[in-house]
Every structure is written in structure tokens, then in C-alpha cells.
């Protein structure tokens, strides 16, 4: 509705008083138009009211929101609980159709529009962040692990003989389980340990060797990871991409929380330029600060991506799409860039303070140049037995997300053995902790972290001293 | 907070005026306690305010909602957009962990509690609806098709040689794609056409034959469907369950929208009693009137179900859980039973009116005794060419969900050919339309449907007559 | 924004899928247009989503909601707390200006429109309910008592010598205090007690007598009340209106909750036809089921009403206006009429059951023909001492709103003495209780009331018997 | 509900994961307890979720929110429209009773608590801002003008002969109409014009003279104003308070938006210390950034204030109370102080820039030391004819709140004549504009204002030059 088109009686409101309001409405409507017609991510964030208005308008295009819809099918998007309807802005039909996650729904023009527009904005996001060659992407309403599984399932369709995934080891279960969930066999390639830096990098030679030994047709893909916990570095995706290109084998990259880090996005662009990248997958919660549950699968080739969409069996939730759509409008391009730049500053600040702390306590911060998000701190001067209780101490005092990694834990996952699990490498020999400067962290949080760490450090030492005393007097 | 425990000054409110309010609060708190301690689905629906209060309280147990949380991890459930946070009641951590969809999250006691409690309520729902032996179930935040894929992937772990799925044909893409998405090979078993009834039933003998011919170790499972479009009937899951038991082969049932129909739930209970059922999967949107995007996988054996959960790679959205939780509290046991009973009445009414319509127009309603939701109407007296335009006519007039099925459409899906796709059988020879009486349909909708159908019927005939005239005069 | 006017790419959504959504949007926009251009109260209630959309659009016309407003005044409707802004849909400017409650605000076209449109809808409501000659009305964001004070203050401007208000006694404090708050002197005219009916009616002769005795210029107005607690009847406003007309003295009617009762609205129309009515005032909470805090002042003459508006010093809250606006749209004409007709049915049911109860217990229901909302029940057979504890008993058991009126209470208000306060007349000699069938009461509530009443009645008798026993044995 | 008191099964969530959540809940509950038991305004603002939780809990104490309330009265706070109920958090009963605005309601313990607690917090606010002797205050749900009327009506009860109000002229209608609305006669005392400063101050001598001439019993009160548009200064309330004390005549102060300015609050405290102040009234919207519609009446004597409350006829809206309550919790003491200090900085910045602008354009900023909010700029160098169009120009360009005051406008209000209305004094001879630095204004707004002003200034001059040309060529 446009007030400018209505003949509103002077009895309701004088014409000249209306004029400014009409102008303000027009400027809002221009913004709507630009978004819907040109599919352009707005430069500046929108106020909440405009976002909600647009979302409501779009939801009104779905048949379950028509005044007098007669629903004679088995699925008519009726919503029993008003609170549920409200929190979904009356979207009920989900996205996709039984054949394809990207297919339009005849009953749900609004949901269809929402999904496609969000995917279009996401592509602009990815390009803005440095991956300029990205041709297309779409939001999958399952998290990163399952989305990687989906990519593998999709690749299998065109590589019917393939059963192996060559995987650069990273000790996060879901990365690994993404392979077994698809019914494929991982070939685990341990990283290379740099003794000086106390850091891990990709063992490119080992990949090469495996490629030489195996029948390429039996290899589904090479599978690397960018964002990860220090002291592991991002995989050398550029080198692996070259191998993939040469061998004619697909290459899938787990870029879980890598969008927020320009170091990683530039590597991605570079990998594509000089080698082969079939899919790269990133989490929506970690990169866009929405609730857990979605991932973006992206590609440099539209056809390939379409295959992933058509592998997905059936319709899917539009809830994640809605979260991402609203968040992108709320931030705007400049708002997102501000977040990214603040994160970078905070990372530098965290590193500096961590190095100071290490220096004071006779520890080290492993030198992980290719990790722009996570940092490790060695725990050599602390008693190694029961070291994980240091993590519990921090958690109890309100610090979440610190991982204390003990040594010598062996773990079996889906029948595969991992020696020294947690440390990404069987030969990493000292315990450490990791912290991250992720999107949204604030400087006061970092400051408070060090206050608490300091307190816990002292307490832990004292506790151990006491228990040693106790045991020595026994 | 309990007002009864506070010493509130008489200057704020006289004690005797408070007492009734305190009593009312106590009764609400008793309801909360009963739900949380005994995990009992309330008999009567709760008012919106109580639901929201509980949900907020539970969300307050997650670390991202602690006043002074310091988040030093890579995933701290920060939510950038206030509107998004609000619509998720500040839940951000999702459910599950990287290893398992049912694992508890240290950072998110609230999300964990929400997920487990919802699963517990869902089990009570399934049992109340007649599947009394159901031992456990859980909500998967992907829709039915993908959940079936997940079941197949899970079965594969204990049946490493299996590659075939014996599937009773049903012409819904996502049912079929659930198999191929898992990288398995379907063996398609066409139903038996009953000429008298003009209906389709399961070809049990053909299943038997396949079981005899194939190596059981190569068979992943038998895969049947209950709820479906008429004139297909529900599969004879009791007979197939017996075959499965005898052959020692798993049996997975797609019970997509079957929970709402007691005929089907009783069959399910019976199938388990006399045979083998490993998993049965149902949609949350169709059975619980929530937005699309979730499914319930259930089993008669806790161990088996646990395997499905641990197959899921990574964390997942808690949005679907929240929808289901709120809906179950909003309806209460009696509210849900009322919906189910109204649906049944509406189904009988729809059938009666459809039979009248058929009688008037020289058509038939195929006799599908084992289909308590969907009904078909033959379209023999109408011109078959361009018959799908009848569906478009209805849709344009506000009737959604009617499927008009033409004959002779052949379709290829993932490399498999389906003759006469849409009709579930290559020999079904006349076009028909289907309508359903699903949960939430109302009598006025049914009445309006017949008004519109009548109008479109006439119009279609007239249109065809005209075009025939035109062609005859050519 | 109109989707029909946008060129939305087929990449976002296919054109034919959009068309139904566009049609649905158009029908909503027609409804908006009709409301805003023709100021017509919709026949049927609107869905919540449409109401909120319109309210947001209208709020967007106020300057505080313009994107780049620069506020250099002392009052710019900035809202500090987001929750407050949200609950007011970002309306902040209130209504009226310093000179006049009905004046338009240059900064707030939206608030102005909202206020005027609401007043227009209210006039249609009043006319629909039978007061067809009503020329205009407006919502005052203070409750009935203060609105009556405002009417008196307004009348005083044109009657500078007036100091008396001739008032037909009703024992509700705010009715009386409306006079003294304006600094005027009440002349209290007791009603006439009908011994047979045990009811009270207006003492018209006493009014006549006072008019004869006093200088008309010193009389500000005659002041009557329609809706009231039984056994008082509505005042004979037709007779008093005739006296007012003959004497050339204004007549103000307190119609607090009388709009919901056609008996009273027809009297009002009649009073105007044959006599003089200057203002009639009704509560918004009681007649429209909104939170307490507003009243509607109405008149048969536009000029007179304008004077009331211009008496109000300053701007006022628009919160009440918003409540009424949303409620009127939510109900629609037919929704409101349904409420009114249900109330009438419930009144008849309550009377019938009360008469049965009275018959059973040897009591009476006073015969109050001119009271269509409240009913009394004598309490002659119960011990009169401590009779109010019967009310407390009911309240404790969840029954609110029953008044138990004891005899012989004398009260002084603002220096005026009321003998037998609460009973409206000094000679009413037996205690009684009152109950009402007000808008929104339900039949199950009435049934439960009688269950509780019966239990309390027995308990009270038993308690009194015990205490008598005790005292007799002393 | 306290999670710590519940026995929650480990099946729902592991105990150790719960413990942090329980601790977080406990800290929230401590905050609730402190507020409710000690009635202490929190030092730091609360998150939205806590505010809403508390508000919902308090609303749950009102009988309309009891699960099985049976409402048999004529006013049971039923709310017809769900949206309305939601926006009021289900509060429906309003505040006060028919006799008194501060009386507790038996049916509404929650509303009663809300009102009294809010008044208690407001008193702490007033004291914190420097008026330490303030003994009590309460929120009146009508704006400043009507609240002043209420004070006058209240004073009249104890001064039955009084008919005059001695008023220091200020050209804002509602200040003046507050007198006439109460049926009283203003005696208008023009200020003193300081030619050097081009500013206005109180004419104390004229007050003294009037007090000497009139019978004190006929004077209701002296009536002064603090916050006002420059070039008027705040009245010399200290001097007038002394006169009031000496003459034994009440003194009422309109402190409309004066709470935000420490200069004025200190004067108020001082006035009370050395003289007499009966009531001082301030707007909630201007001082607390809530929507228009409430005022705070405060006093140094509890008894006096009680009289105002008991003058109010009937129940009143609790909507304003809710806004203020939520805002105070949202800001906290430190949040409010931050706003106040920012405002002061912005005032100084605005003055500095205005003085620069004046210097550049040959104008002056009148020297108004006793006005810490509003500033004037003379418009001597511009053509005086049609000068108000300069204001319209600014408004059209998005600057609201600037008043352009032309000379020589005469106005009659309620029969009283004001020469040179708008300028507060008949002898003020040059046009000027006023701007304010009110609570919430931002520095970018001020900067943008000057950009726009500069542009409009040039344009206005050009326009006038052109029209002069045109007229000279005629």
C-alpha cells in the first residue's frame, strides 16, 4: 500500500502533514524495490521495522496465508500453535520440492522468493569477502558436517566407482563423520609437524603419494579444511587444488568458519585460480551469527552446485534461510565489513596479550601463520595430569570455548583409530589450550579472559602443589 | 522466582490481595515442575504465556544467555540480529554435538534439556496414538526424505555389504531419492492393481520372490510406505514385516503423515508384534502442524535408534524442536486427540460428498480401504487431453492441494525409469484427481471445495466442447 | 509496496506462481484502501497480520520513524527502551496538541490519522448499536470519571455562573467525584424505592422540584446514569432529558458500560429525540474489552463536542486509541454484534438461574426491568452480621466481581454524607449481592459461579450456626 | 520456578551441565528479589529478557490472568484482541480505584504492585538527580498540562475561596489552559526583558505586588515554569518560593522537561529549602523517553501528594506506568546518568556551534544562563515577512522541532488576550528561532542540523531577494 496513491480525507489528516510521511514511505519502498528487482544486498543495515514488514509481505505470497485458501492436500502449511506461526512470520511451506532443494513451489511463491533471494545475497557476501570467482552458492538447512556429506553423496552420482576420500586429518568429529555418514572410506593423511613453530601444516607430499598409488576413479575427492583450532594451520588448499587439477579428482573444502577471515578467503580464490575446487562449505552460525543449523555450499561452477541441490531428498526448513535473510538486511554490507574488521583487530589484540602471558609464564604461543582465528598456548609448566580440569575451572568462572588439550588420548570413531586425538597429530607432545577470536568477540571479553586465566593458572598450580604434598607425605 | 517466598512490603501491595496471585503462580509452577521432573505431556493445553515463560527460562540455561559470559571459542552462539534472537527465544547453540545428535552440550544445558524433553513428549504422542510398543524416538531437524536417507546410512554401518533397498513403488520423488541419496540401489517392486476397486495394494509375493533370489547380506532393508495418495493403499506393512523377520532383513517404514490416522498406527503396532520393523519415520509438519523441516524417527529398540543419532554428522538446528515443543504444550493431549478425531469426521464427510459427486457425474471413487486420508476421483468422463489444466483451474480459484494425475507420463529419476509416473503403476489407465482430509482441514473448506469443483468441472467441459467444435470445423 | 508493480526476476520466482500471491495482496490492499479512504469499519474482522501491518505503516508516517530525522525540539518522541517502542509500534507522539485533543500534529501525521480514524469508527459503532442520531464522538485517554469531569469543565466555560450539578444518586465513588474534581457542588437526588419490586428508579419529581427552586444559570447540568448495579435501575433518561430541554439546562449521561446493552442505547436515542442530551460518556474497557484507561465522549452536536476537546490541556496518550483501533479491526462489525448478542443470551441465562437459586433458598431477585446487565439477589435468610465475608469466600474460590452489599454503612466523600452507602438509597433495608453478565462472560463461567455460590452459601450458614451456638453457650 | 529446586533427570540433561545455568538463573532471581523486596532501582540496566520475564510474572498476579477465574462483575479485564493483550503483557485492570489513584485493587495485585514500585523507583530518580528532599511522587497517566490541572483541583479542596492563579507568562498553550481547565482565573505576570542579553527573566516584583493587592485566600497558588523555550529563562523559582512561603500561598512548579537538567533540579531543591513548593510536575515522555501521555507529580510532603491522588476520579491506565517501569529497568541508574551527561555535552556543543553560526551571519544567541536546554538564534538579518517559511523549509528537509517565532502575532485563548504570542513578551521585537538539546539528541544530528540550516538560510535569502526583485519590477 502506498499512502501517496490514496485519497485520504483532510478530516483524517491535513495533506501537508502527510507529505513528509509519504516521502519517508517512498524511500522505504525504493529500498524494497531495489532489493527485490535488482537482488542487491543493501549497503547499510535496515531498521528492524522495515525488515519485518518485508518478511511479512513476502510470507503473504504463500497460499497458507491467503484469506480464503481451501487446502485439500496432505500438506497445507497449517500451523497449530499461534506462537509458532508468529515466530516464523507465518512461513510454513519450507523450501525446495521433493526433487530439488532449489526448485520453486507452486503453493509458496513467498518461500521460493525468500530462498532464492537469500542465496543471491549470500553470493554477494562471498564475493565481497574476496572469493570473486564464486559463481553460485546456496544455503542448506543442515549444519556443515551434513552439508559436506551431501556434497560427497552428490559427487558419487557422477563417480560411481569412487569409495575413498583423501582427508587431511583434523580432530573434529563431524569433519570425519561427514565421510563415513556418506558410506565412504576415509584415507587419513596426517599433517606435518613443524618442531620450531610447534605447528601443523598439510602434508602435501603424502597426498601426492596417495594419488599416485590409487586408481583415480576410486577416489571420490580430496578433502581439506581451512579454519581449525591452532596449532593446526589451515590446509595448504592452493597446493592441494593443484594436485586435484592434475589428477582430475574433485576437491572439497571445509571452510567452516573461514568466511570471516580474509587470509582464508584469499587462499580460496587463489586455489580456484591455479587448481581445482569443486565445493567449499561454510557454517552460517559461525560466519553470520545466527543460531546453529545451516551451511552455505558454494562453487565456482553452477552446474556442479545444481547437482548438490538435486541430491537433497525432499523439502527442507526455511527457518535458517529466514535467519540469514534478516541478518543480512539488518547488518548491510558495511555492517558486516565492520564486524570482520573488528574481529581482525581483536585477533591481533588477543595474540599480543597471549604472547605476553606466555612470556610471563614460560610458555609459548605456537607460530601458526596460516591460522587467523584460533591461537594456542602451550601448557608445559603446568602438571600434565588432570590438565583438563583447568578448562573446567575456566568454564565455571564464565569463560566458555577454551579447549584444554591433553596428550595421549586415543579414540576410535566409526572403526578408525586416532592416536593422540584432539591434537590432530600423534606426535604432538605437549598439552596446550586454544582460544579463538571469532566474529562478535569483544575486547572487554578478551580482557576478562586474561583476568580469569591468570586466577585459574595460579589456582591450578596451588592445587597441584597441594596434591603433590599430600601424595609425598603418604 | 516465587512470589510466595519473597517479603514484599505492604507498601507495594496488601498481603491479602497478593494471596490469590501467589496461589495462581503456584499452580503454574506445579505444571512446570510436573513437566520437567516427570517429563509428562500435559493433559490440557497451556496458555501462550506459560509456554513462553518456560521456553525463556530454559533458554536462560544456555551459556550465551548468561549475563557475563566470556566466549573464547569459535562458536559462542552470538546472534547478530535482535529479531533473529527474539524469534528463537535466544536459543543459539542448536542440538547435538559433532559426534551424535542426542549428545548433551556442555555450553547449552537448556538446548539439551529442550531436545530431550521434546523427544520424550513425542514418544508419549506416538504411544497415545496406538503404537504402544514404541521404545524411543527422536526429532531430526530434516524432513522425512532426508531422515529416511539417514536411517539407510545408519543401517549400512552394520551391513557393510548391503547395496539394495527393496522398495514398494510410490510415485513421490523424495521417497525414492532417499535411497539414491544414500548411494544405494533401489529394487522397485510395483504394486498389485485391483481392477474392481481400481486401487493399488502391495505386491507381497514379489517381495518374497526378491528375497529368495538375492543374497540377504546385500539387502540393506525392505522399505514400505503407509500414508500415500489414493488410489494407492497403505502398504501391507504387517505382511512385509513378517517377511523381514523371516529373512533377517531390516524393515524401514515411511509413515510420512500416518500418525494422524489410527488405521495406520494400529497397523504399525501390529507389524511390530508379528514381524520386524526397524525404523518408522514421520513428518512433523504433516502430523503436528508446524512449519516444514522436521521428522520423527522412531523405533521399537533403543539401541537401533541410537545408531541413527550417531550417524548424523554434527550439530543441528533446534528450531524444529522448539516448534514441536511449543505445539505439544499448546495443544495438550486432549487438544491433539480432538484434532485427530475431527480429522476422521472430516474424512468421512469428504468421502461421502465425493461419492455423491462421482455418482452425479458418472465417475467413481476408487475403493481404497487402507487409505484413511487421501481419496481419488476418476476423471473418465472428461477429455483426457490437457486434463492437468483442471488442477490449475482449481488452484487459481483458491483450492490448493488437489492433484490431477494424467496418464502416460514417463519419468527418469537418478537413472531409473518410471512408466506412467504419478499413478504409482504402469497399468493404471484412467486419469483421476486426489484430495485429502489432513489434520486441520475444516468442514467449510470441504464444502467450498465442492462448490469450486463443480464450477470448474462445468467450465472444463465447456472449454473442451468449444475446442472440439473448433477443431471439427477446421 | 505492491508486488504487482515490481519486475521480479524469474530467477527468484516463476511468474505464474507469483500471480496468486499478488492477487491475495491486492485484496488486502483493497481492504486498507477502503478503511483509509472511506473510513468504513470493516464488516468482518481482520487477521492479526493485516492489523499489525497497517498499524506499522501508519506509525511510519510519524517523524520519529523517518530514517534520517534530525530532532532539534524538546520533544521528539525518541523511545529509550526497545521493548517500549515495540509495544507501541513505534508510536511516540501521542494525540492532540497543546490547544486541543483533536488537533492534528505536524510532526505526527500517523498519530493524527490513527486518532481521527478511530474516532470515526467509534461513531459507526455507536450508531450501529442504536444511537443513530449520534453526530460525533471521540476517545479520551482517561477513564469515565475523569472524562465526565472534563465535560463539566467544558460546560462551565459557557455557563460561568453555574456551580450546581443535579445528580441522581448512584453509589459509585468515581461518578460522584467527577463532580467535586471539577470544583462543582452536587445536589444529590435520591431515587425512588419501589417496595414491591425491591428496586430503585429515578425520582423525576425531585429533579423537577430542584429545577423549579434554583436559578437555572447556577445549574451546570442534570447528571444521570444508565448502566449501574441492581437493584438500581437505569435512570429515566428520557424523562430527565425532557426536563432538561424545558429548563434549558444541559444534561450529561454517564453511560459507563451501557453501549453493550440495546435497552440502554435505545433509551439514549429516545432521550435525544424528545429532550436534551449534551454529552454521554462510556468506558472503552467495559464496552470494548480493552485495558482500563479510556472513555468515549459522544454528542448529538459537533460544536458541543469540539468544546470538550479544546478544554483538555495538552497532548495525550495514543495508547488507548491504538488498543481500540486494533480491537475494532480485529472484531469487525459482525464480531462485535456477535459479542453483544451472546451477552444478551448470557444475561437471560444468568437471570433464570439466579431466580431458580432464589426460589430454592427463599430469596428474591429484585425486579429491575431497566437494568439489562446487573442482577441482585437478596440475602434475607442469611445472618446479616459479617455478611461481606460471603463475598470474600467467593473471591477466594476464584469468583471475582460479586458485590455483597451490607446495610447501614455511612460514608463521607469530599465532605458529603451518604447514609446506607453502597445501596444507593438510605431506606433500602436488606443486604443483597449483585452479579453481572457483562461483555465476554461465558456460560461455563455462569455455571461455575452457581456451583461455588452454592458451596459458599452452605458454608456461610454453617459458620454462622456454629458461632451462634458458641455465643449462646457463653 | 527455580531449576535448582527441581529434580531434573539426568536423562534430560547432565547435572554438571545444569549447574552453570542454575547459577545464572540464581543471579537473575537475586536481582528480582532485590527489586521487589528492597524496591531499589538497579545500578545497571537489565537485559530485555529479564524485564519481560518480571513483567509477565507480575501480570500473572492479576485475576484476569488466573487460569480459572470466574468473572461475574461488570469489569473483569477481559481483552478481546490478542494483539492488544500481548502488547500490554496481559495487564488489563489499570491502576487506582474509584476513590483514589494510589489505592490498591483487590482483583489486581500485580497492577497494584507495578504502580507502587514504579512510583518508588521514580522517587529514587528524582532524588538521584539532585532533588534530595523529595518525599514522594507518583506517575499520573495524563500529560503535564492535565496533571497541573489536577494539582489545582486538589488545592481548591482546601482553599474553597480561591479563584486566582498567579502565573508567570510562558507562551505554551497547555501551561495556560491547565488553569482555565480547572475553572480558575489566571493573573498573567509578564516577565522582565533584559535588553542586553535579549532574554526574559521572572518579574518577581510583579508577583510581590499582586500578592500585596489580593486577598491571599482568593489566591489558589503561584505558578512558575522551569524548562522553557529560549530566550525565556527558567523562572526564578527560588525567589517565588520565598514569596509563597511568606504569603502562606501554595506554589506549583511546571518542571515539564527539567529533570534532565541539573541546573534546574538544583534550583528546585534550593527553592524548597528556602521557600515553599507544594507540587512540581514533569513529563515522562520528555524526561524518560517514553511515548507521550504521562507526568510525574512530586512533592516534599506526603500528605499533600495524597490529596492529588484522591482528587483523581476513578481508575486509570497502567500503560504509562508499564512504559516507565520497563524503561527504568532497561536503563538502570548508570544508563540514565549517562544519558543526562551526554545531553549536557551536546547542549554545550550546540551552543558553541550556534554561536559560531550567529557570528558568521551577523546574528546573536541570546544570553540565557538559566536555560540549559533550549537556545535561540536571532533572525535580524533575514526578511521578517514570511519568516515562518524558514521553519517549514527546515521541516521539509527532515529537521523537526525548530520553532521560528515571528513578531506581532496576537492570540486569544479562553478569552484572554496575548500580545506578541509565541515570544512570551509583548515587547520582544525581533524574530528568532529556537532549538533544543534534549535527552537523546546526538552529535551527528546537531551537525546535520547546521548543514541543513546553512542551506535553508541561503535559500531563504535568495527567495526573498527574488521576490523583492519581482515586487520592485511590478
From TrEMBL, chains A, B, C, D:
Positions bearing N6-(pyridoxal phosphate)lysine: 286
Residues that coordinate or bind substrate: 97-98, 105, 315
Catalysed conversion reaction: O-phospho-L-seryl-tRNA(Sec) + selenophosphate + H2O = L-selenocysteinyl-tRNA(Sec) + 2 phosphate
EC number in record: 2.9.1.2
Location, primary (coarse class): cytoplasm
Binding site for tRNA: 273, 397, 462
GO cellular component terms attached to this protein's record: cytoplasm
Pathway(s) this gene product operates in, as recorded in its UniProt entry: Aminoacyl-tRNA biosynthesis; selenocysteinyl-tRNA(Sec) biosynthesis; selenocysteinyl-tRNA(Sec) from L-seryl-tRNA(Sec) (archaeal/eukaryal route): step 2/2
Highest taxon of source: Eukaryota
Top EC category: transferase
Residues with site note (May act as a substrate filter by repelling compounds with a negatively charged alpha-carboxylate): 74
Gene3D superfamilies: Type I PLP-dependent aspartate aminotransferase-like (Major domain)
Cofactor: pyridoxal 5'-phosphate
GO biological process: conversion of seryl-tRNAsec to selenocys-tRNAsec; selenocysteine incorporation
GO molecular function terms attached to this record: O-phosphoseryl-tRNA(Sec) selenium transferase activity; tRNA binding
Annotated keywords: Cytoplasm, Protein biosynthesis, Pyridoxal phosphate, RNA-binding, Selenium, Transferase, tRNA-binding
Compartment(s): Cytoplasm
Function: Converts O-phosphoseryl-tRNA(Sec) to selenocysteinyl-tRNA(Sec) required for selenoprotein biosynthesis.
Family: Belongs to the SepSecS family.
Self-association and partners: Homotetramer formed by a catalytic dimer and a non-catalytic dimer serving as a binding platform that orients tRNASec for catalysis. Each tetramer binds the CCA ends of two tRNAs which point to the active sites of the catalytic dimer.
Name of the protein this chain belongs to: O-phosphoseryl-tRNA(Sec) selenium transferase
Species per Swiss-Prot/TrEMBL record: Drosophila lebanonensis (Fruit fly)
